């Protein structure tokens, strides 16, 4: 079976056309996908992933493939590409992809490390040799008119694309709007290649900063015994019960370190006379203790007073926090014991006194009073900290946390002049910047939004998800301690930097810019770049600027005089950021909703970015986009922007880039695979008038393109989920659409790309049903039943993103919004669509037959009906009758309606059995109905259905889920 899948244009017809590139031909996608998954192991990630937090970094193998594929000629063999990507063992020159796949298939038999099993180290640890680079550069000069191609990443983010470009010795340009990743880029792409190793210098100055700061913090982390050192404190909030005036801790669970179910270290509260004190307890497994650490006063955001039992609702608690009507409380402490290991104790009065000393220090020190004064600018979409009273960024820290961060910042500035005096300008700048990376990284683990990790007994980072989640229990980390403090964070940063430097020392640094990607051509020049490889912002998935302000404000406190250009503004630039953020359009709604306005804004900004990339690229230049998003809106805006900028779409490739998980479990916007979408700038501008194409003429072409791509993907052996198969088919569909652009309907109104994507989704759904459903006559079912079955088939879950469910409905002729109220076939769950079972839809037949009033609005399906509008209604009614009245009544009910001869009913039953998980309640009852007397009556042949295994795709998913074990 082929390891490659591509959709590409035909060969150039004249010498005036551009040279076809490797990315426009066949690529070793399976082998690269395997390496992407190997790299995702959190214990062995590339150093750029550890140096500082940032969002959505792409795997090294995918980035290397995008870069090399965009600059090497078509016809480059898979073996040559993989070898250059450092995939495959030494000495293996042929069939490398097949070797990697065989190693993957038999990975469960390995004895030893992954590197030993595969016979080569993880590719990101290896750079091409001098001989490999020399051969590559010779080949590239032949392709690109005697010069090495320049690679541009206009939205560089965490920097993997430009970093890998430098490793291949290519002239590289990187731009990023946000100063936070821009600082990371300076470290990776400028200091690492130009300054090189700084290990001794960094540790020398790190130690001085540590000594100065720790001396100022000594009295803030008291210990009970000499020699112990406080590592971290579990903190919460005390509020006063409005009913009894008792003290109420906002703690959901009392665990400090939960080793297993019922076993570990916990804090036991003692409530007496309206007060609360704490005791540290060790709980053994199967303990007969009446104390349950999982039973704290907080339940579902409401708080029950442990003294009088009165419940304070979430909104009241939130208002108390916002109005500063609370007290910080340290209730648990983790410490380092000189006799070995770490231990835990309860919070005591000496800890509260330390908090008080921190508060007094802030009140008496003007510099502390004005430290991090910037206003919080965050939309409610990502949980606005101001909702809980955190109106300035300094408010994200408890008094002791704020003093700790301040003292390290002061120690940094006290040391900065010595650093400048001892080193040349660039080296001093590098040292100061890298040490600030460590300080910024500390923010992630020492704030009121850094939760306590009960499974490990230490802090979680702020961004467990892409939002600011309020923490009722937060971690106050002792930055002066060796573990998880400044020493530890700086060591990790220095180790990462040294690895990065070792990889590219001696290579030319990248040209770096921090600005709007829509205006980059004014800096890099027009027609100057050969290849642009970008991983653009993901529509509405991540509000980068809003989230990064927590780092920006701290970095600015350190580096405003070192990098005045990066930290000139009060906060990060949000107005020029290319994200779909509806909160920016609050109060501006008119004919369009704020969501539609946000979509238009994103589309306009992406169009401006692509138009500017078009300017920067030389005629015949290539643009490759790495896109990992599955919302139709995101693809619609991306494709519209790309097409209107003048690019010709020439190829698309899907690569497995994330560990596949079930659709109902993963974040709704993120796909498991990265789509490489490639376009070319025409060699000659065509200014002639373009004749519009009728949608009716294009629609069938888009469907056939999508079907062909889906069948090829399913046959390719690539490890793609069904949802990613749909997304991967978008590329060929867009190529057909772009080739016929502009497209109009019969009235002459322009047709947007999303109509083509909807047609593609429907076409691929047909292919998936043909491939995975053995049930005959499925296409003859009513649209609602088909939608219900296809939803289960594609998402393998009762929950799916609303936009995808709606698009799937359109494809089968159903407006899911129109049918929601009358059918109750689905409901909303956290913004997603959740399919409903018979228990949520069918009226109680016993009550109906007894003449009782049953709400038809709440339960729209009447099981006493002789005929049903939809096949799914008949099936759900049969299940209800069987479960409510038993097999005999069900047999009578089925026979009275002649369902034995109702092909729609029979088809609906078998289709549901094919797609439902065997353990699902509906599947279990259907199996019961198809056995015994009811089964004899219906006589439905289900011999073709495997009732124990979900099917081929599930086996693929299961293999993928085991990738990291």
From TrEMBL:
SUPFAM superfamilies, per the entry: S-adenosyl-L-methionine-dependent methyltransferases
rRNA-binding among keywords: no
Any matching Pfam family: DUF1156
Boundaries of every DUF1156 domain copy: 27-74
Alphabetized UniProt keyword annotations: Plasmid
InterPro entries: DUF1156 (IPR009537), SAM-dependent_MTases_sf (IPR029063)
Protein name: DUF1156 domain-containing protein
Taxon lineage: Archaea, Methanobacteriati, Methanobacteriota, Stenosarchaea group, Halobacteria
């Amino acid at each position: 079976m082929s390891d490659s899948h591509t959709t590409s244009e035909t060969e150039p017809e004249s010498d005036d056309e551009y040279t076809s590139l490797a990315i426009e031909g066949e690529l070793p996608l399976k082998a690269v996908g395997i390496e992407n998954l190997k790299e995702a192991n959190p214990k062995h990630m590339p150093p750029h992933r550890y140096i500082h937090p940032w969002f959505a970094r792409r795997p090294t193998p995918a980035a290397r493939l995008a870069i090399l594929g965009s600059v090497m000629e078509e016809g480059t063999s898979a073996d040559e590409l993989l070898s250059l990507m450092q995939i495959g063992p030494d000495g293996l020159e042929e069939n490398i992809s097949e070797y990697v796949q065989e190693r993957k298939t038999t990975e469960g038999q390995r004895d030893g490390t992954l590197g030993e099993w595969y016979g080569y180290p993880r590719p990101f640890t290896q750079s091409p040799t001098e001989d490999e680079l020399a051969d590559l550069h010779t080949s590239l000069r032949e392709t690109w008119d005697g010069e090495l191609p320049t690679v541009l990443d206009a939205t560089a983010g965490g920097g993997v694309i430009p970093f890998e470009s430098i490793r291949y010795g290519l002239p590289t340009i990187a731009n990023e709007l946000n100063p936070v990743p821009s600082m990371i880029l300076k470290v990776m792409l400028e200091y690492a290649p130009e300054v090189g190793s700084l290990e001794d210098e960094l540790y020398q100055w790190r130690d001085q900063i540590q000594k100065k700061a720790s001396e100022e913090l000594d009295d803030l982390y008291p210990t009970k015994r000499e020699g112990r050192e406080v590592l971290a404190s579990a903190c919460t909030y005390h509020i006063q019960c409005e009913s009894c005036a008792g003290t109420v801790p906002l703690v959901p669970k009392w665990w400090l370190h939960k080793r297993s179910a019922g076993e570990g270290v916990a804090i036991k509260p003692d409530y007496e006379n309206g007060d609360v004190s704490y005791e540290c307890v060790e709980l053994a497994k199967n303990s007969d203790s009446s104390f349950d650490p999982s039973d704290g006063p907080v339940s579902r955001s409401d708080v029950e007073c442990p003294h009088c039992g009165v419940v304070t609702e979430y909104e009241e608690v939130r208002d108390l926090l916002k109005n500063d009507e609370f007290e910080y409380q340290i209730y648990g402490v983790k410490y380092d014991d000189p006799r070995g290991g770490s231990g835990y104790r309860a919070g005591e009065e000496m800890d509260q006194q330390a908090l008080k000393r921190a508060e007094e220090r802030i009140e008496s020190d003007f510099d502390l009073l004005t430290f991090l004064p910037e206003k919080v600018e965050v939309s409610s979409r990502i949980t606005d900290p101001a909702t809980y009273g955190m109106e300035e960024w300094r408010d994200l820290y408890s008094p002791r946390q704020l003093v700790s961060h301040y003292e390290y910042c002061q120690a940094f500035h006290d040391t900065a002049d010595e650093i400048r005096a001892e080193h040349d300008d660039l080296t001093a700048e590098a040292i100061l910047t890298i040490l600030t990376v460590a300080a910024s990284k500390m923010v992630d683990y020492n704030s009121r939004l850094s939760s306590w990790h009960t499974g490990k007994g230490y802090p979680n980072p702020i961004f467990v998800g892409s939002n600011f989640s309020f923490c009722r229990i937060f971690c106050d980390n002792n930055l002066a301690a060796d573990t998880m403090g400044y020493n530890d964070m700086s060591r990790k940063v220095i180790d990462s930097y040294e690895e990065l430097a070792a990889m590219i020392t001696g290579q030319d640094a990248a040209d770096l810019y921090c600005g709007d990607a829509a205006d980059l051509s004014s800096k890099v020049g027009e027609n100057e770049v050969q290849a642009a490889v970008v991983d653009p912002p993901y529509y509405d998935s991540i509000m980068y600027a809003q989230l990064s302000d927590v780092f920006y404000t701290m970095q600015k406190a350190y580096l405003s005089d070192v990098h005045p250009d990066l930290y000139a503004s009060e906060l990060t630039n949000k107005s020029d950021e290319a994200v779909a953020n509806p909160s920016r359009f609050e109060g501006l709604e008119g004919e369009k909703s704020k969501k539609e306005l946000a979509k238009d804004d994103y589309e306009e900004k992406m169009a401006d970015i692509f138009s500017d990339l078009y300017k920067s690229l030389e005629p015949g230049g290539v643009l490759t986009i790495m896109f990992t998003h599955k919302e139709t809106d995101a693809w619609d805006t991306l494709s519209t922007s790309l097409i209107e900028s003048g690019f010709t779409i020439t190829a698309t490739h899907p690569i497995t880039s994330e560990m596949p998980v079930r659709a109902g479990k993963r974040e709704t916007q993120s796909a498991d695979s990265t789509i490489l979408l490639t376009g070319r700038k025409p060699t000659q501008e065509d200014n002639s008038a373009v004749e519009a194409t009728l949608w009716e003429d294009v629609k069938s072409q888009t469907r056939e393109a999508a079907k062909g791509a889906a069948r090829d993907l399913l046959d390719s052996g690539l490890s793609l989920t069904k949802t990613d198969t749909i997304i991967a088919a978008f590329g060929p569909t867009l190529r057909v659409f772009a080739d016929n652009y502009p497209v109009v309907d019969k009235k002459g109104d322009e047709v947007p790309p999303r109509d083509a994507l909807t047609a593609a989704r429907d076409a691929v759904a047909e292919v998936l049903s043909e491939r995975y459903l053995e049930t005959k006559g499925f296409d003859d079912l009513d649209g609602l039943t088909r939608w219900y079955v296809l939803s289960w088939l594609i998402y393998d879950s009762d929950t799916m993103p609303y936009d995808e469910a709606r698009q799937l409905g359109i494809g089968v002729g159903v407006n899911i919004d129109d049918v929601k109220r009358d059918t109750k076939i689905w409901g909303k769950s956290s913004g997603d669509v959740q399919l409903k079972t018979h228990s949520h839809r069918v009226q109680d037949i016993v009550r109906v037959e007894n003449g009782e009033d049953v709400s038809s609005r709440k339960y729209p399906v009447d099981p006493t009906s002789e005929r049903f509008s939809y096949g799914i209604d008949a099936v759900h009614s049969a299940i209800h009758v069987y479960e409510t009245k038993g097999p005999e009544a069900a047999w009578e009910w089925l026979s009275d309606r002649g369902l034995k001869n109702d092909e729609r009913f029979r088809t609906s039953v078998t289709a549901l059995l094919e797609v439902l998980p065997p353990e699902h309640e509906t599947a279990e009852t259907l199996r019961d109905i198809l056995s015994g007397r009811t089964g004899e009556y219906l006589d439905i042949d289900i011999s073709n259905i495997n009732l124990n295994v979900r099917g081929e795709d599930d086996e693929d998913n299961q293999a993928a889920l085991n990738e990291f074990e």
